[in-house]
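Request from the bench team (R.T.):
"We need a structural guess for the complex before ordering more flavin-adenine dinucleotide. Sequence and SMILES attached. Just send the C-alpha cells back."

Command: build protein-flavin-adenine dinucleotide structure.
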Amino acid sequence: MTTTSLHVNEAIKELIDAIGKENVLTEMRHRALRSASAAPFPVHQWKKHLPDVVVLPTSTEDVIHIVRIANKYHVPIVPRGGGVGLADGAVPLRHGIVIDMKRLNQIIEIDEENMCVTVQPGINLLELNRVVGELGWWHPDDPAGYIGSVVGGRLGAGGFSLIGAGYGHTRDLVISMEVVLPTGDVVRVGEGGGRKVRKSSVGFRLKDLFIGHQGTLGVVTEATLELFPKPEVEFPAFFAFKTFDDAYKTAYELGKSGLKTLSGVVMFDERKIDYLRRDDEAFIPLPEWVNSVVATICYGTEAEVSQARKVIFKICEGCDGTYLGREMSEGDWASRHDRYHIPFHGRRSDGQVVLLSWHCEDAAINYSELPMVMKKWHKIVDKYIAKYDGMFDNWGMFMYTNNAFKPWGDYLTEIDIGVNELMMTDEIWQDWLKMKQEIAEVVIEAGGSISSCHGGTRPGDEEVVCYQELAEGQYELMKKIKRMLDPNNIMNPGKYLLDNAYREEN
Ligand SMILES: Cc1cc2nc3c(=O)[nH]c(=O)nc-3n(C[C@H](O)[C@H](O)[C@H](O)COP(=O)(O)OP(=O)(O)OC[C@H]3O[C@@H](n4cnc5c(N)ncnc54)[C@H](O)[C@@H]3O)c2cc1C
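Reply to R.T.: structure attached below.
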C-alpha cells in the first residue's frame, strides 16, 4: 500500500476540521520525533519512515474521527504510546498518520470496592501508580522500561512484567478494553460483556486478540485494569554462584518450592557478569570467583515473606549460593527501571567508553532448553563480533521467570547486544539481520517463542515468526482476521508481513 500526497493532503484538511489545528502537527520536527522507537533502527534509514502527519487526540470521539478519515482516504495510521517498544511497533513503515496517544492520559475511575481502575491509554505506569498509590493501591505491571511505557503501549506490545510470576503480565492485569476498530466502530472487549468482570464463560475470548497486536487491529482508547493492595513487604535477595550451572539448578529448586510470594527469579549468565564488571558503573563490584547470580523477589505480608525468606536462603545456600547482602540486593532491585543510560554507551575491556546503542533479543524458552540456547546464541553473536571490529559487543544474558503466577516452566531469555550505529552500513545491516535470524532459528529449534515481551515485528524476526513459529495455521488465521477487521489495511501496515493478506486476496 502506498499513500499518495493528494490523499494525505485531503486527509490532513479533514483532520484539522475534525479535531482542531492544535492537535494536528505537520512540521518536520514533530514528525521526525515519531519516526523511530527505542531500537537500533539504522539511523540512515529513519527518513524512510517519516510520518506525513502527527495527531494528538484528546477523546475517544477524536480517535473515531481520525480512524474514519484514515479509512476513507486509505492513509496508514500507527498508534504510538511512549515509543519505547523494542520491536519497532510504533515505527510508521508506510508513512501516513502517527496517532500519538499521550494526551489521552486521564484516570477515568478508581473503583476501590471492586479493586480496579479505568484509564485512558496514554497514562504512563509511573503516574498511574503515583495516583493509585496515594490510596494504598498498586497496578503491578513492572517492565524494566516502566518509566517510558504507557498503558496503550503495554497492551499493544503484549508486555512482560518482571514480577509476572507473582502478579501476572500485562494481559493478566487488564480486565476489559474499549477499542476503536479500523473502520471507526467501537467495541468493548473483556470477559463476557461486563466491564469489570474477571471471569465469564460467555462468547469468544476477544480481549486477547487486542493484546500484542502491535496496533495492527485497532486503537485502544480505554482500559480497566487490576488494582492490588500495596504489599506490606518487598524482599529482594541476590545470591552469587561460581558457575551458571549452579545458578540454573537453583532456579529450578526455587520454582519447585511452592512459595506463593515468590514473584520473580532472574538468572545472570557468565557473560552478563563479565559485562556488568566492565561496563555498568551502577553495579557493585563482585569478587572474582562470582560467575553467575540468581536474583529473587518476594512480595506479600510480613508474616508470609518472613517465612519465604527462610525457604529461599535454605534453597540458595544449599545450592552453594552466597547471599550478596542487603545493600546489593535492595540497591540492584531498586534500579531495575533505571536502564536508560545503558542504550547510549558501552565500555571496552580496556575501560574506554564507546558509543553503543542497546539491542535486546528476547525469547520465551522452556527451562530444559536454556543451556542449549545460551551456548548457541553466544556463538552466533561472537561470530559477528569477530567479523566487524568495534561494531558489536556481547553484553550477556538474563533469564527471567516467564510463567504468569507460577515461577517455573519457561523463562524470558534475553541476550543484550551493543551496536555501534555510527558504523552501520547497508552491508553490515544485512549481516545484522542475518544474525537476528540465526538467533530466532535457535528459538524455533528449542520449541520456544521468538519474543516474550517485545513482539516479533522487527526485520530479521518477522519471517521466522510468520513462516516458522506460527506456521501451524496461526499465521493464516491472523491474515484472515486482519483482512476482516481492517479491509483497507490502514492499521500499522507492514507489521507482521500482514500486507500479504491483501496481496493474496487480489
Ligand atoms: C530500557 C528498556 C527496558 C524494557 N524492559 C521491558 C520489560 O521488562 N518488559 C517489556 O514487556 N518490555 C520492556 N521494554 C519495552 C517497552 O517498555 C514495552 O514494549 C512497552 O510496552 C512499550 O510501551 P510504549 O508505551 O513505549 O509503546 P510504543 O512503543 O509506543 O508502542 C508499542 C506498540 O503498541 C502499539 N500501541 C501503542 N498504543 C496503542 C493503543 N492505544 N492502541 C493500540 N496499539 C497501541 C504501537 O503501535 C506499537 O506497535 C523495555 C524498553 C526499554 C527501552
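Two things stood out. The first strand starts at residue 24 and ends at 25. The chain is about 35% helix and 20% strand.
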